Structure formats: structure tokens, C-alpha cells
Amino acid sequence: MRLARTEAGLWGVLGDALVPLQAALDAAAGEAARIREPGGASQMFEAGSAEPMSDAGTEQMPKVGGPAQMYEAGCSEQTSSAGEAEQRPSARKGAIVLPTEMVALLGDETAMTACARALAFAARPENGALRHPIAGLLAPLVPGKILGVGRNYGAHAAEVGGPKMEAPRIFLKPSSSVCGPGTLVRIPPAVTKPDWEVELAVIIGREASCVMESQALDHVAGYTILNDVSAREFQFDQPLPMTSFAKGLDDFCPIGPWIVTADEFGEPWQVGLQCHLNGELVQEGNTRDLIFSVAALIAYLSRYMTLRVGDVIATGTPSGSGHFRKPPRYLRSGDRMALSIEGIGVLEHGIA
Q1: How many angstroms from the chain centroid is the CA of residue 153?
Q2: How far apart are CA 203 and CA 218, in angstroms?
Q3: Domains in the chain, ordered, with CATH?
Q4: Which one of 46, 243, 259, 281 is at 20 to 30 Å from 21 when CA atoms are compared?
């Protein structure tokens, strides 16, 4: 399942379309309520079957959110469009109401199940009115905290140099650095060495404290793409490195375009990453080159701090960042970036 966010709320992603989750859920539950009306069951047919369903068969139909979240039987009000459903989310008594913030949604198992069923309903050919063009995407969530990992790909560690790391090298990015797809990232005039880093971002879906590596992935809600924009002068031109500051300036954390849930994404062991700058391939790597795996990072971090729903771990970048090229290359006004990860998609943004 793919989840996105716009100014209008939370959406699911079906191919090249956005689906308003609450509207799709309302429409699905409305149909279920009509089926439950007296005499309604005998008129319904199973999908792909020419035989009418019996009353007993009706009870076996998928229920959005389970019986407790269904619209009450006997309600015959009909929603003719996604827009009407959005305007009247509580019109049908007994409907489940989804959280309006992504972090709350990710932490609500019942709501997540309801979203999956709503998207399945919207994918039916006759429900095209629920599908809208993709536009206006924001960062898919505002994280509680963003934990970065330095030099976590073998090839990148080699190009940076330094001793072999016995434990992950952790830094923090503030939530104020987050921006979304299509943003024109503003580089402060005083910054002279702005750089790029494509990264797989892990989103926590269940609170994690002192978890074992073997169970760590059970705490993952999903994955997205993150550009760890960095002002290299604060990392390498100072007597003491200021890594968190270098990576925590406004707009220095583009995230998106959406979240791919862990069940759809699969195992993060062998996933390809690329970064294009003005159409030129500047980074290419694979998570099989990670020094500390996603599971190892979760287990390590959770020994020292509680990972909460909506926290993000930026897992590191492959080789090819601008600062380590010969000669070095830095971001400039007018640059266009396209960062892609296999199984997620492409995060595009510009430089103001």
C-alpha cells in the first residue's frame, strides 16, 4: 500500500492516481450498508459469479474495518462522488473515521486495514470517480525525529576515508528541515558547499525500545526516499565537525513522494538507489552494500532511545556525493534533482 499527503488530507496511491482515503472508505461502507438492507442481499452477486448470493454469503463479504466500524444496517443514504463523501464524512452513523495525520494513521492498525480495503474498493473499474491525478504532494509525514547514519555504505565509507566503524555513526536532522516533492530547496547565501545524498528512509510504525535485531523489522511501517542535503563546510572545514547542523538547515530534508508500506516493499536487503542531477546519473548503489543493515540500525538505536511511531531513520548514502568527487561538485541555483529507489518511485525537487 502507498500512502501520500496533500493539503487536502491523506491519500492512497493507485498507479498514477491518488485516492482520497476517507471518501473511498465512506463509499465502500455505504455499499456494504445497502447490501445489508432488507431484501438487498438477494439482489447482490459475488464478484465474477453469475449466481446470486444467499443471505449467509453476504455475511462473508469483506467488511471495511470490521463489524464495529461498519455503517449501521438500514442506512440507505448514497454518496454519488468522492467529493460528496469528503464533505459528509460522518453522514452515515457508525462509519470509521480515519486519522487526519499520517503519523496517527501509521500507528492505528485498524485504520491501516481499513485503508487497504478502501483502496481495493477504489481500484474496481466502476469506481473511477474516486481516482484523481497525482498533484500537490507534500512530504508524506512530519517525523517526530530524524536519525541519520553516516558512512553506512561500504563504497561511500571508502571514498570518505577514516577508520573502520565498529558502531553506527549517528546524527540528527530536525523536523524543521523537512520539505516535500517539488520543493525548491533554499540554500542559505552563506552556505558555499551544499551537497546531495540519496537515502532509503525507514519509518517506524510500532514503538521500539531495546528490540532484538531479529524482531526489528516488525516495527517498520514503511519506506520512502530522502535527500540528506548537507552543507559540507560545517562537516569538513571546522576544527570540530558539526554534522547535525550541516544537515539540519531549513529544507535540507526533502522526503517523498509517498510511503510504501513494509508489506508491499518487502525486505530491504537488496534495493537499488540512484540520484540524477540535471539528468546526469551521479549516484548509484544498492542496500546490499550497507555496513549496518536496517534491522541492525533499529536494534542499535533502540538500545539508547525509544523509537516512536513516525520517527524516521535515514540509512546512509552510496558513493557519488559531490564533495568527494575530483574535483568537488556542489549544488547550484536552478539544479534539478531526481532521486529514485527501487520499489518506491522517484522524488523530484529543485534548488532555488
Answers
A1: 22
A2: 11
A3: 2-133 (no CATH), 146-351 (3.90.850.10)
A4: 46
